[in-house]
Design a protein that fits this description.
The chain is α/β, with parallel strands linked by helices. The strands form 4 sheets. It has a 7-stranded parallel beta sheet with strand order 3-4-2-5-6-1-7, sandwiched between helices. Helix 18 packs across helix 21, helix 18 (about 410-420) crosses helix 22 (about 495-500) and helix 23 (about 535-550) crosses helix 27.
Length: about 725
């Protein structure tokens, strides 16, 4: 194993020539010097701090080829492209290559022209690759995303556990392990598994002072999403969703709302996926909507916001994904929509895992829930999770900017610390809370903890209250997590002193989110109009009545109440915006819209109201999926029963679709069909009813017409009436 001795000049020259930098950042130089000396090196450096350079620069300067073990094909390709673009021969070896391409890569590696060889963990374990690498002149091995080694981490991959033994087979080489997210427990596990307990550790602060952290209840999330993005028009952002289906839905939703967005997930055609990624990097697309497969190794410095539409699986994942914002040091916004319903969904995903994996996943979800619901400084919570103290409140997160109510917590913290002490510092939060609340379950009784002094001392407060106190006691460092035993809480020296001589402390009340949150937020066709502007609504009703009298039409024919409520929610100011209101459509806008737009514009000006362009939500999904087909069939005068049969619908379902088309402002001529099922007198009878009625409600019509007509006959005539007068 040859180590370059006089390398400082070469390093500085390559730093400038290859990477374009005059100076190193943070601990990069110390890490690189360590690698150049052939020492095992462990790097814990947050996302965006320049981890890749730590192994790329030594690989260029040192003789031979550096092996980089990397978990994601997208990450490999991105880094290989970047290296090749600056004149460094980097290659990857993974399942995407053909046999001839693999042979070419091996040949270039063995002749010494490749400086960086990226290898998937699955590929490095293959016998033919082990044999090939034994022949290569390897400078060192870099293990990227090293947290994948640890079963206590958020992204455990069993194949990572084999890496050390495989490298030992290949030859004697130094190792650099790198991760952006490692709790003290995970850090220990990585070093133990790689047998590099004696490695030199370089740990940078996890604090990203330019990132603003915020959690919002997942209520009307789509409406919040549009307002958030449109207030940052033209800025780059990433939205993370849990499922591929949700990624597609949100991307489509953004596109129809005039946001330049694209989806990214593993199920897309590779060509489309790569194009969407490249468009984002090249600023052809502003927003990428993705599963967590996106972003690892993507070096886009100007991502101004990262949104978690669904709650993440772990604090580690959340921290890593938010870390893709603001890498240029300028401000980045990190917004999470939180509903406990998302946590319950994630728990279901874990049901098929082994007991150990399931328990670990549950602990990670509990930490995620605690972070979202806690009213303590977000930055303090994140840094504490990764074993870093942060004394003050940051002033740059939602909990600091909008602080929750505080209360005197001295007696509660004393109870928590005493509970840990009196149970021999061998248990976790749930057990301590059960003891404090006086819960005499089998676990508590078997250890005799129902006989401790603190047992039942906090029986008046809820389970959730005491968990909040325990979390805050940890943050104040009266307790600490046992690094050797997952979940166990122990006293610190500070905690032991506090029992002897307690003093006043302030605790914050947690956020009170709805237990289930909102399963699906309404789109444009089911918009929640409970919060409409009642003053504007009454003015619109008055205008509708005036126009109805002038045109000798019932008011509901002009616009129905739900449409007016929506206008009083979204304040449309253009024909296009008004046409998006449920039950309107461009036909009605042309026929009735101008006076309503004039009234709304005047009302906005007089009351200085936020305009509709910021809150308008267009539905990405047309409820009438068969709209064009149905309209074409009706134009051809095809019987409705035949249309329903062709589309494998019931007759009722077809009428639902036709009504939706009609209420959206499209004129339909069903005379050819109605004349077969209703004679002229019956048609006129129902028609006259709708002309004089105050509502088009079906039940009201059935009552008034005294069951002389079937529901289907009345529905057909209502469609005819509205098509002729409303559309």
């Amino acid at each position: 194993m040859e180590v370059v001795e006089d390398y400082s000049v070469q390093l500085n020259e390559s730093l400038k020539e290859v990477f374009g930098y005059n100076t190193f950042r943070g601990k990069q130089e110390a890490v690189i010097n360590n690698i150049m000396q052939g020492r095992n090196t462990f790097v814990i450096m947050p996302t965006g701090a320049g981890k890749s350079l730590c192994y790329q620069l030594p690989a260029i300067v040192r003789e031979g080829v550096a092996i980089v073990i990397s978990p994601l094909i997208a990450l490999m390709k991105n880094q290989v492209d970047q290296m090749n673009a600056v004149g460094v021969n980097a290659q990857f070896l993974n399942s995407t290559l053909s046999k001839s391409e693999i042979n070419r890569v091996k040949k270039e590696t063995l002749n010494g022209s490749v400086k960086l060889l990226y290898v998937a963990p699955e590929s490095i374990t293959k016998e033919e690759n082990v044999a090939f690498l034994k022949e290569a002149n390897i400078s060192f091995a870099a293990i990227d995303e090293a947290h994948c080694i640890s079963e206590w981490g958020h992204d455990f991959r069993p194949e990572y556990r084999k890496i050390k033994s495989i490298l030992a087979q290949i030859g004697d080489m130094s190792i650099i392990a790198l991760t952006a997210t490692a709790t003290p427990k995970v850090q220990l596990d990585i070093q133990k598994n790689l047998q590099m307990e004696d490695a030199d550790l370089f740990k940078s602060s996890f604090n990203r002072p330019n990132l603003y952290y915020e959690v919002r209840p997942k209520k009307e999330a789509k409406k919040q999403l549009i307002k958030f993005i449109k207030s940052r028009k033209g800025k780059s952002g990433i939205i993370y969703c849990l499922s591929r289906k949700k990624v597609e839905e949100i991307a489509e939703f953004l596109v129809v709302n005039d946001v330049k967005a694209a989806p990214y997930h593993a199920g897309l055609d590779p060509g489309i996926r790569m194009k969407n990624q490249d468009d984002f990097l090249n600023e052809e697309t502003d927003v990428i909507v993705a599963t967590i497969a996106f972003g690892m190794g993507i070096d886009k410095p100007d991502v101004r916001f990262v949104i978690h539409y669904d709650a993440p699986k772990s604090i580690e994942g959340y921290y890593q994904e938010t870390g893709r914002g603001g890498r240029d040091g300028l401000e980045g916004s990190c917004l999470m929509f939180y509903s406990y319903n998302d946590i319950l969904k994630l728990e279901k995903f874990n049901k098929d895992k082994s007991v150990t994996e399931r328990d670990n996943a549950r602990l990670l979800l509990e930490e995620m829930t605690a972070y979202a619901e806690s009213a303590i400084c977000r930055r303090k919570q994140l840094l504490h999770y990764f074993g870093e103290s942060y004394e003050k409140d940051c002033g740059f997160c939602d909990n600091c900017v909008h602080p929750r109510e505080q209360y005197d917590g001295q007696e509660f913290v004393v109870s928590v610390v005493k509970a840990a002490f009196q149970t021999d510092q061998r248990f976790g939060m749930n057990h301590l809370v059960d003891v404090i609340r006086g819960v005499e379950n089998a676990h508590v009784k078997s250890y005799g903890h129902n006989k401790t002094e603190v047992f039942g001392a906090g029986g008046k407060e809820t389970d959730g209250f005491w968990k909040s106190v325990v979390r805050q006691t940890l943050l104040m460092e009266y307790l600490e997590k046992d690094i050797d035993s997952v979940g166990v809480l122990k006293l610190t020296e500070k905690g032991a002193s506090f029992i002897e001589d307690p003093y006043p402390v302030k605790l914050s009340k947690d956020h009170e989110y709805d237990t289930e949150g909102e399963e699906e937020e309404p789109g444009r066709d089911t918009i929640n109009t409970n919060a409409y502007d009642s003053t504007l609504f009454e003015m619109l009703k008055g205008l509708r009545k005036t126009i109805g009298k002038r045109k000798n039409l019932p008011p509901y024919v002009i616009f129905q109440d739900p449409s007016l409520e929506e206008m009083a929610t979204t304040y449309p100011t253009t024909r296009e915006e008004l046409a998006q209101v449920n039950g309107v459509g461009m036909g009605k806008v042309i026929k009735f819209g101008e006076p309503f737009l004039d009234l709304i514009i005047k009302f906005i000006e007089e009351n200085e109201i936020e305009t509709a362009s910021n809150v308008l939500i267009k539905s990405a999904i047309d409820k009438s999926k068969n709209k064009i087909f149905i309209i074409q069939q009706i134009d051809k005068k095809i019987d409705l029963e035949e249309i329903a049969e062709t589309k494998t619908m019931t007759y009722d379902q077809l009428l639902d679709e036709i009504e939706h088309i009609c209420y959206s402002g499209t004129k339909l001529n069903l005379d050819y069909y109605i004349s077969h099922v209703l004679d002229r007198d019956k048609q006129e009878d129902i028609y006259d009813y709708f002309m004089s009625a105050e509502t088009d409600d079906l039940d009201a019509a059935m009552d008034e017409l005294e069951d002389e007509y079937s529901e289907d006959e009345i529905r057909l005539m209502r469609i005819k009436f509205l098509s002729e007068h409303a559309n």
